[in-house]
């Protein structure tokens, strides 16, 4: 190693200091330029130590000055999120942003990531688990920051540390030694609201009694009829285009949904949500009527090639939140308990069950990711099916 040319000098106050001019830190891998700087210190040893520190920092930063140095957990989390956004769907991105802002960053954001230990993370996970285990006390929803998914939050933290590890910011991931607590989670008693066959008959009778020359009458008749016949999520219905609807073969193909209210995402909620659903002849005839009514309307606006099945009156993607008020008015007029649009999905499941369909078929129609999800949601619906099954047993076991 060449001897360092550290020179002594005096400050204006007469104090002795030392300086190493043009100290070589390294060569920037992005620009190819040598990085040099002047280093001052109270002692020669201090100058040497500072030189080593600068060299190590430069190396840790990827041998470049142009790369932003990431020191805090929050900075690394944002870097991770930028990469995450390039690889995920809009819904997943929004959920990850919520996880970061609600849990990860408030817990560790200002801490230097290299100083966060397993003990720090373990303490936080225990706190999250305690919050998750708190009784709901009749509430249907937990307070913000007290969610039940403490294991998910640890997974998010772990992914951020893995990101830091891949960037060479840390040498080990402290999450690997964290023990996941096992606590009992109090689940809310969520009532699955749906219309019975009789109530649906009353609803459609009311809709068909309305002025069928109006856009809103035709729109809601077609939309609700399709939701009941198919079990589509409302976002899937808003993203439907006419080429997704095969009226001759009586099927609807689902391959997309709306997110952020009016953005069509070219993939559905889950992989299982990609599906082709058969619909009944009544739904087909209602959709045919709606197709010609809609086409006539858009031809009058100079837009005969409107592709969306359920657009706005002007032809844009419909924000279905704006339809809730109109839906409630229809339900009130029909003297029925108000349901959300998702209630028609539950109504479809109830009809399928009582018609004798298996849970596997219902799972495929609804696009649930697992059979267990379908069974957990709908196994208790409407006693009609249970009564039929008892009748079958009684007739068979008549000994």
TrEMBL record:
<dbReference type="InterPro" id="IPR002104">
    <property type="entry name" value="Integrase_catalytic"/>
</dbReference>
<dbReference type="InterPro" id="IPR010998">
    <property type="entry name" value="Integrase_recombinase_N"/>
</dbReference>
<dbReference type="InterPro" id="IPR011010">
    <property type="entry name" value="DNA_brk_join_enz"/>
</dbReference>
<keyword id="KW-0238">DNA-binding</keyword>
<dbReference type="GO" id="GO:0003677">
    <property type="term" value="F:DNA binding"/>
</dbReference>
<dbReference type="GO" id="GO:0015074">
    <property type="term" value="P:DNA integration"/>
</dbReference>
<keyword id="KW-0229">DNA integration</keyword>
<dbReference type="GO" id="GO:0006310">
    <property type="term" value="P:DNA recombination"/>
</dbReference>
<comment type="similarity">
    <text>Belongs to the 'phage' integrase family.</text>
</comment>
<dbReference type="Pfam" id="PF00589">
    <property type="entry name" value="Phage_integrase"/>
</dbReference>
<dbReference type="InterPro" id="IPR013762">
    <property type="entry name" value="Integrase-like_cat_sf"/>
</dbReference>
<protein>
    <submittedName>
        <fullName>Integrase</fullName>
    </submittedName>
</protein>
<keyword id="KW-0233">DNA recombination</keyword>
<dbReference type="InterPro" id="IPR004107">
    <property type="entry name" value="Integrase_SAM-like_N"/>
</dbReference>
<dbReference type="Pfam" id="PF14659">
    <property type="entry name" value="Phage_int_SAM_3"/>
</dbReference>
<feature type="domain" description="Tyr recombinase">
    <location>
        <begin position="190"/>
        <end position="391"/>
    </location>
</feature>
<dbReference type="InterPro" id="IPR050090">
    <property type="entry name" value="Tyrosine_recombinase_XerCD"/>
</dbReference>
């Amino acid at each position: 190693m060449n001897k360092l040319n550290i020179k002594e000098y005096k400050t204006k106050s007469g104090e002795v200091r030392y300086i190493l001019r043009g100290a070589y830190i390294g060569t920037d891998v992005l620009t190819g330029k040598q990085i040099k700087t002047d280093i001052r210190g109270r002692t020669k040893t201090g100058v040497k130590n500072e030189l080593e520190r600068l060299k190590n920092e430069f190396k840790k930063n990827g041998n470049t000055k142009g790369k932003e140095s990431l020191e805090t957990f929050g900075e690394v989390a944002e870097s991770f999120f930028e990469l995450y956004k390039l690889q995920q769907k809009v819904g997943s991105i929004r959920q990850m942003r919520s996880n970061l802002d609600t849990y990860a960053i408030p817990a560790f954001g200002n801490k230097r990531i290299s100083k966060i230990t397993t003990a720090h993370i373990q303490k936080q996970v225990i706190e999250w688990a305690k919050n998750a285990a708190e009784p709901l006390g009749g509430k249907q929803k937990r307070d913000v920051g007290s969610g039940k998914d403490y294991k998910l939050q640890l997974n998010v933290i772990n992914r951020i540390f893995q990101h830091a590890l891949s960037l060479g910011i840390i040498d080990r991931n402290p999450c690997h030694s964290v023990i996941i607590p096992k606590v009992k989670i109090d689940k809310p008693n969520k009532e699955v609201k749906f219309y019975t066959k009789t109530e649906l008959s009353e609803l459609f009778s009311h809709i068909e009694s309305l002025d069928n020359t109006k856009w809103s009458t035709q729109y809601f008749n077609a939309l609700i009829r399709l939701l009941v016949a198919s079990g589509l999520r409302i976002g899937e219905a808003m993203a439907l285009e006419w080429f997704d609807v095969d009226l001759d073969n009586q099927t609807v193909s689902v391959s997309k949904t709306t997110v952020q209210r009016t953005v069509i995402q070219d993939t559905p909620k889950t992989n299982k949500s990609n599906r082709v659903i058969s619909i009944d002849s009544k739904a087909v005839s209602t959709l045919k009527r709606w197709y010609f009514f809609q086409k006539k309307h858009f031809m009058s606006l100079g837009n005969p090639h409107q592709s969306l099945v359920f657009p706005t009156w002007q032809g844009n993607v419909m924000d279905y939140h704006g339809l809730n008020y109109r839906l409630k008015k229809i339900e009130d007029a029909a003297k029925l308990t108000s349901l959300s649009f998702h209630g028609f999905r539950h109504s479809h499941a109830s009809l399928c069950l009582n018609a004798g369909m298996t849970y596997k078929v219902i799972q495929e129609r609804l696009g649930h990711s697992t059979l267990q999800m379908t069974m957990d949601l709908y196994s208790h619906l409407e006693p009609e099916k249970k009564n039929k099954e008892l009748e079958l047993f009684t007739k068979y076991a008549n000994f």
